[in-house]
Amino acid sequence: TLISGLVSTTLDTIKIACSLAECIHASVDANAPENSILTTPTAIRVGDVTADFEELRDRADLAIFWGGNPTFDRPRFIERFIKPMPCGGARRTISVGPRPVLPQSSYNLHFSVAENQLVSLARLVQAQIEKKATRESHRDLENIACQLLKSIDTAHCIGFISTKTADHTGLVN
Q1: pTM value?
Q2: Nearest residue to 163 via CA among 75, 98, 92, 68
Q3: Which domains does the chain have, with CATH numbers?
């Protein structure tokens, strides 16, 4: 499992992502030079950063686009890293956010979530992974979190992809 796209996020967001990664035994790619140094808080928390886009291409059988479309920053991202099949099987994708990244099909799902609800959804997914009760009740978000967890549970290797942006997207709060 690979969690990436944390380059424009806050430290609190990175902590949430690291907690999620820890729960699902994932690797974290902070994708920022200052976060790749072993003495940074991220590296201390999760260990050596080893994931990259080529690893996503070669290994991830589930790619989750969180809150954005990577082709805005990297126009050939889908062609280079998502369309090639991973070793040993097919790849499924899930877009989480206001707009789908790929046309919907049995292999490309989209969960429509407003940008201001993405952090709440991430917290619900984390709570479900950790089997903890949640304080707030957002029935629609809870259903999406449940479906995401089912997809995560059936995948062998997962890539979380968010856009490189200073705006409040993905796990940024």
Answers
A1: 0.67
A2: 68
A3: 2-161 (3.40.228)
